[in-house]
């Protein structure tokens, strides 16, 4: 079987991981720009200065370790992978030509908010920043590639962090809506598919990374999430008013969650863990807070401050489609188990499946389960906007990269995607594998953890020519697209 004729095959990226040009075109700093390189085993570091003048760094994961009164910025002697990325800022024509050679129907990218509004709270955007994305969209359109744009992808302007505490401050809603108004107006007719926040459910796990939130208490984080919900809903309504052709979606990190055994306690934990994922999409797709979350807030003593019209805004701003990332599944248990990782999430090892070099469990069937779960729950079109295998690629003496392991991973996942569509009736818009061109890992800051069909000569310390070359998977994916998924 084949997928629908208008199926959007493509690839996905994020500005802070591949764009570069951080100090060019009048761009301001974002949260990503003060996070240093990491490693396979150590969380990346946030750079800050305390009011006493002391310098330090803390892992991005636990917000509780971020000091009160810290001012975030760039320090000399530190390596920041986002500052150059893989230099798409200067090489976008070359890269887009390679995407076109593969046959991309769409390309997912993010706009760097601080490139348009350097501090984040300005009323007037940077014309130089706007012009850059005009050029990118025009180049994509030249090859009939549909842009799929994430409006905020772990790129909160640092000015909003240092001045307001990020999304914990309600004023960020208006700053974001002004930013969206600029995008929808300027790129009307050039961009049709939008997503408001990347992996919005990461706000409950890595709040600095996802929203510039530096306070660790549960109430502050829940309030910040509410502000993003309201901002997204306002953006959806505004985007439809400016251009009725706009399709505006959400984006969550997702994966199948299993109880490790048939023990009822394990199944109850799986239900609770799944609901923690669904909470974000429940609000954004249905337009109201689910009862289970309200009860949880009540038990924990969390009280969200809402404006009088917030509930109405949420109802009026439901998303058009649901985008999600899928890399792995995980198990939960009421007893002890071997811990594993995967896309900023934790669980215990599933004995029936193998794992990647980074400990992410490989579960293609879980993608079919995820697609069915989301479709049955929301009845809204789905879009797989991230999926892929991070691995160490070896360049052979002849310059080739024989990444059969990546082909195997993607082949299995596309096969399950096909079953979800053709056997289960899931409505799926498209598929954009993550890091279609090698880029900086979000979790570790590494370059050696590669996902792409296109190899970029760059190492973990920022050395290399940045030259591009085609991997074996490049040619495989080209045939997949040409055959609309029938030749795997």
From TrEMBL:
Gene3D superfamilies, from UniProt?
Glycosidases
Give the record's GO biological process terms.
carbohydrate catabolic process
| PANTHER family for this protein | 6-PHOSPHO-BETA-GLUCOSIDASE ASCB-RELATED, GLYCOSYL HYDROLASE
The UniProt family comment states: Belongs to the glycosyl hydrolase 1 family.
Source organism superkingdom: Bacteria
Give the lineage: Bacteria, Bacillati, Bacillota, Clostridia, Lachnospirales
Q: Name one GO molecular function term.
A: beta-glucosidase activity
Name of the protein this chain belongs to: Glycosyl hydrolase
InterPro entries, alphabetically? GH (IPR017853), GH_1_N_CS (IPR033132), Glyco_hydro_1 (IPR001360), Glyco_hydro_1_AS (IPR018120)
Q: Name one GO cellular component term.
A: cytosol
Q: Which UniProt keywords apply?
A: Glycosidase, Hydrolase
């Amino acid at each position: 079987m084949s997928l629908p004729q208008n199926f959007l095959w493509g690839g996905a990226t994020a500005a802070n991981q591949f764009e570069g040009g951080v100090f060019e075109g009048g761009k301001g700093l974002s949260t990503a720009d003060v996070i240093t390189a990491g490693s396979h085993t150590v969380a990346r570091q946030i750079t800050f200065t305390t009011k006493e003048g002391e310098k330090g760094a803390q892992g991005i994961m636990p917000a509780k370790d971020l000091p009160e009164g810290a001012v975030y910025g760039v320090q000399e002697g530190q390596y920041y992978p986002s500052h150059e990325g893989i230099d798409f800022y200067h090489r976008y024509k070359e890269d887009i030509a390679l995407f076109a050679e593969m046959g991309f129907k769409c390309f997912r990218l993010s706009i760097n908010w601080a490139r348009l509004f350097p501090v984040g709270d300005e009323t007037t955007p940077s014309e130089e920043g706007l012009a850059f994305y005009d050029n990118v969209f025009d180049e994509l359109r030249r090859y009939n590639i549909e842009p799929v744009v994430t409006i905020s992808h772990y790129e909160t302007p640092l000015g909003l962090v240092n001045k307001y505490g990020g999304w914990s401050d309600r004023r960020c809603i208006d700053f974001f809506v002004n930013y969206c108004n600029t995008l929808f107006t300027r790129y009307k007719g050039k961009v049709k598919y939008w997503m408001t926040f990347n992996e919005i459910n990461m706000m409950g796990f890595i709040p600095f990374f996802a929203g510039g939130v530096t306070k660790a208490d549960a109430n502050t984080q829940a309030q910040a999430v509410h502000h993003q919900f309201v901002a997204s809903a306002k953006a959806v309504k505004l985007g439809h008013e400016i251009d009725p052709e706009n399709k505006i979606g959400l984006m969550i990190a997702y994966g199948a969650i299993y109880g490790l055994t048939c023990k009822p306690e394990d199944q109850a934990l799986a239900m609770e863990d799944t609901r923690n994922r669904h909470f974000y999409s429940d609000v954004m797709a249905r337009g109201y807070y689910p009862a289970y979350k309200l009860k949880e807030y009540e038990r924990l003593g969390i009280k969200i401050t809402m404006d009088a019209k917030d509930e109405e805004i949420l109802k009026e701003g439901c998303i058009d489609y649901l985008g999600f990332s899928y890399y792995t599944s995980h198990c939960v248990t009421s007893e002890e188990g071997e811990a594993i990782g995967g896309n900023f999430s934790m669980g215990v090892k599933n004995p029936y499946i193998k794992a990647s070099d980074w400990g992410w469990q490989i579960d293609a069937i879980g993608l079919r389960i995820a697609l069915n779960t989301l479709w049955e729950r929301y009845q809204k079109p789905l879009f797989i906007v991230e999926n892929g295998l991070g691995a160490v690629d070896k360049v052979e003496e002849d310059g080739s990269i024989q990444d059969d392991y990546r082909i195997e991973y993607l082949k299995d996942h596309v096969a399950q995607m096909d079953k979800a569509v053709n056997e289960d009736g899931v409505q799926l818009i498209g598929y954009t594998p993550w890091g279609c061109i090698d880029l900086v890992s979000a979790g570790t800051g590494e370059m050696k953890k590669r996902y792409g069909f296109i190899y970029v000569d760059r190492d973990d310390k920022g050395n290399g020519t940045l030259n591009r070359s085609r991997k074996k998977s490049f040619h495989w994916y080209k045939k997949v697209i040409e055959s609309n998924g029938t030749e795997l």
